[in-house]
Amino acid sequence: MPLQAPAFFQQVLDLPFEGTVIGDSYYTKPDPASGLRLRIDFYATIRLNEYGGLRATVLHPDRGTIDTVLLSFADHGTFTARDQRAGCGPRTDGYGVIRDWHRGAPPWAGGDFTSLRRAVTDYARLWLPTEPADQLRKQRALDARQQSQDVPAVAQPVTPTARSSHRR
Q: What is the pLDDT of residue 109?
């Protein structure tokens, strides 16, 4: 059974930025003004067709890979409920992984992706602004205008108070 990557990335992981799925990888470029892109894919364990989590990679079109992080299903508690029902714990076969050789439901079905989604989103925001540059510039200009309106139009001069300096 394939990983069903389009359904996973677009419906289950449901990231807060637009992207496209090519093969088993998700690509996004949250800021059109930036050259940086984000690729998210499943990372394989030492077994064929077994995956331990997601790999998020920041890419530059000229410089290649800038940074990579592995986000494991086990570390984010993605399949804790499934593994507990199966009596599977750490260091046992099948713990915190998905396999794409079974028929039926997608291999990632039944997972809780809340923590993993947050980790991917935080990582993406670290490297990639999620607002287009023009929107960000407009927002900063609006903020500056609002701050200037809060300042009184005519500043009153401050008169220093006279001090007497008596030295003894």
A: 85
d(CA 57, CA 67) in angstroms, rounded, equals 6
Please name the residues in contact with 58: beta carbons below 8 A apart, sequence gap of 6 or more: 36, 37, 38, 65, 66, 67, 68, 127, 128
- Does residue 61 lie in a domain region? yes
What stretch of H or E contains 71? strand 64-72
Range(s) of the domain holding residue 99:
5-131
The strand pair at 37-44 and 25-28 is best described as antiparallel
Closest-CA residue to 28 (of 127, 113, 137): 127
Contact between residue 155 and residue 148 where contact means Cβ atoms under 8 Å apart: no
Q: Which residues contact 128 (CB under 8 A, 6 or more apart)?
A: 28, 29, 30, 31, 34, 36, 37, 38, 58
- Identify the segments of the chain with pLDDT beneath 70: 1, 130-168
Residue 22 lies in a domain: yes
